[in-house]
């Protein structure tokens, strides 16, 4: 089915002839939707979009709540050859204005509650049609789809044609639109399905947002390719998720999912017995969390690493050794290397910039050829901006983003080498090291530390414990206690925010 449309054909293949099979169960309404109903809705949406004048390569931008209809909209956009452009639901009108002006979509679908503010924004950006879709799947988009006949044929799109724009979280500078192709998304999801052994029997706990690569492409594309189903949670409610372990088989989460679940007394090997695989990514997981999860459930979390521009790059193996603190081995078909400042390959164990090559690599940043050229290396390598190292077995470890590297007196300090030592101090829950201006050294190390409840640990005690293990120039000059580290929706610690807060109060 959907011959000639690379991504749609791949995503549909496992459900052909299994129209009655469940694709999703909405965990709020307990409503179940079959594969047949999902694709029928997608085909109607595709046809409604075509009737609105949507042409191949047109962008269809959405800022909507998570729902099965929102998923059908993604698939319908792919079916009609257009480009899916999902926006974070937390973005303000001013932010949405930037994205719509930058990407010039033909259609914008928004939450009805926000459309009074967003319609003029979309019109000012040249959007021709504004539609609505609420969290229950109702709105003018669904009305138009209900009246439309399913699209007769998927619009042909090859591997190299664009399927999606995902804007990077953009902690510095302007957020960039990563252009992802049918080939990128298909090849990556196929590699992950095979590696993690996803089948039609799998039920994936899906509590991630669907505007980010993790919840959208890793979670949904892998499930669709396997013909499995998703237990759809709108948000992350630890008790509800734990209860879902009884009937689900897998979960994809960010580290905060796991730390929050670890706070529940009901998390036992028995409670997790039905689950075959716990996956984590999007932000580093503490080795402590890995150990605590193993102790509580008897199962070892599988950590993987990827980014908006490259989809997934590495993963710990399903069957082989899962090494806590590492992000595992390159995915089949993907090459990963560590290079120094001159582009030479680093020796094993040496820290350098991580570069990636393979069918997973995006086509470039929309409207930013100079930025694309900056990050693309000769012979097809992409500089991820992450710093890391490779061990003797070929497993990679991420030590931080290159822009978070601290340079004190000309010496490099990797935040992670400070953080692992501080995290190991009794009474510390977690920490984040970052560089702050220093009059002599250029930068010095500051650390934000979260203490365990009731702990009266002092900065002096921390320093006394970690100093013997660190060269003098790496010793933190400032240790501040905070109640929580600032994180974005994907659980990434916002070091910019820490630096900003520090300079505001220094
Ligand atoms: P995004 O483009 O929002 O998906 O962010 C990608 C970035 O998240 C990567 O470049 C890494 O810095 C970080 N990241 C993703 N997965 C991991 C992981 N397992 N461990 C450490 N950092 C990660």
Computed structural class: alpha/beta
What CATH calls the topology of one domain is Rossmann fold
Helix content: 25-40%
Widest sheet: strand ordering: 2-1-10-9-11-12-13-14-15
In DSSP terms (H or I, runs of 4 or more residues), the helix count works out at 15
Radius of gyration: 23 Å
Unreliable residue stretches: none
Look at the structure and give the CATH class of one domain.
Answer: Alpha Beta
- The CATH architecture category of one domain equals 3-Layer(aba) Sandwich
What's the number of extended β-strand segments? Answer: 26
What name goes with the CATH superfamily of one domain?
ANL, N-terminal domain
Overall morphology: globular
Q: In angstroms, what separates the terminal alpha carbons?
A: 62 Å
Rounded mean pLDDT score: 95
Largest sheet properties: 9 strands, mixed
The ligands bound in this entry are: adenosine monophosphate
Strand content: 25-35%
Describe what is shown at a glance:
By secondary structure, the protein is of the alpha/beta class.
What can you see in these coordinates?
The chain is of the alpha/beta class and about 500 residues long. Among the domains are: about 35-180, Rossmann fold; about 405-505, ANL, C-terminal domain (GMP Synthetase, Chain A, domain 3), CATH 3.30.300.30. It contains 15 helices and 26 strands. The strands form six sheets. Strands 2-1-10-9-11-12-13-14-15 form a nine-stranded mixed sheet. A hairpin with a 3-residue loop joins strand 13 (about 300-305) and strand 14 (about 310-315). Helix 1 (about 5-15) packs parallel to helix 7 (about 180-195), helix 1 packs across helix 8 (about 215-225) and helix 7 (about 180-195) packs across helix 8. The chain is globular, with a radius of gyration of 23 Å. The mean pLDDT is about 95. Adenosine monophosphate binds near residues 213, 281, 282, 283 and 284.
